[in-house]
Amino acid sequence: MNNFMIQRSKLWLAAALAILMIITRSNFFDWATVLPSASLAIFFLVGFYLRSYLSFIAFAALAYACDYWVLIVGGEGCFTSAYGFIFAGYFLLWRSAKWAGEQYGLGQLSDGIKVLVVALLSISGAFLISNGSFYAFSGNFSDLSLIDYSARVVGYYFTYLTDPLIYLGLAALFHRLANRIQSTALEISE
Predict the structure, then answer these.
(1) By three-state DSSP, how is residue 29 classified?
(2) What is the predicted pLDDT for the residue at 77?
(3) Residues 37, 128: Cα–Cα separation, whole Å
(4) Nearest Cα to 126, choosing from 167, 166, 97?
(5) I need a labelling partner for 131 at 20 to 30 A (CA). Which of 35, 93, 146, 149 fits?
(6) What is the pTM of this model?
(7) What is the CA radius of gyration of the chain?
(8) Which of 69, 68, 70, 13 is nearest to 44 (CA)?
(9) Greater model confidence, 160 or 143
(10) Cα(31)–Cα(27) distance, integer angstroms
């Protein structure tokens, strides 16, 4: 694939991921409120495929804009003094995926498993950053010990982990399908 095709593919991917973030994060579309947020998976995919720091900054700005939209329009939001730490978790996801994308392809099952392990670890790290900072800095838990808070929060870990993994699984299927279509097109053109 030539450089122009690669850049065009990256633009299409960035646009699709931006639309997915707007749909699943902003509550702009009422019908989309049943979809879990794809933000964690999106930051992982941006790191894995796009890899530039500018892409991280652009998607972080989009995430902030979506949250601000929800606050202004819906009157609800997640803005506390701990809010900024969510971007530390997103950076962990993005940087881990960037590293995985530089180390592994997805052509072999063993590489796919390694990328899955990186995803599991980075999502878990983002969970710890997000919830730990919320406990420490939000001001909502001054009467609750860290152990009690942890006991309450651990119940959310499963969905925090599985929701992005579902999106990442779908992305892996799309990746595989795109590679199949590309290899078939190359065979036909030869």
Answers:
(1) coil
(2) 63
(3) 18
(4) 97
(5) 35
(6) 0.89
(7) 18
(8) 13
(9) 160
(10) 8
Tell me the C-alpha distance between 134 and 173, whole Å.
34
* pLDDT of the residue at 141: 76
C-beta of residue 98 within 8 angstroms of C-beta of residue 49: no
Give the C-alpha separation, 92 to 147, whole Å.
Answer: 25
Contacts with 3 (C-beta within 8 Å, 6 or more apart), sequence order: none
Q: Who contacts 155 (Cβ-Cβ below 8 Å, separation ≥6)? A: none
Cα distances from 132 to residues 23, 89, 149, in angstroms, run 27, 11, 9
SS3 readout for 49-116: HHCCHHHHHHHHHHHHHHHHHHHHHHCCCCCCCCCCHHHHHHHHHHHHHHHHHHHCCCCCHHHHHHHH
Look at residues 182, 41, 27, 60 and name the one whose alpha carbon lies nearest to residue 122: 41
Task: Measure the CA–CA gap between 154 and 98, rounded to whole angstroms.
Answer: 28
How much is the pLDDT for 4? 72
* 41 vs 106 pLDDT, higher one: 41
- Higher pLDDT pick, 109 / 126: 126
| Tokens found for residue 2 | 């030539």
163-171: average pLDDT: 96
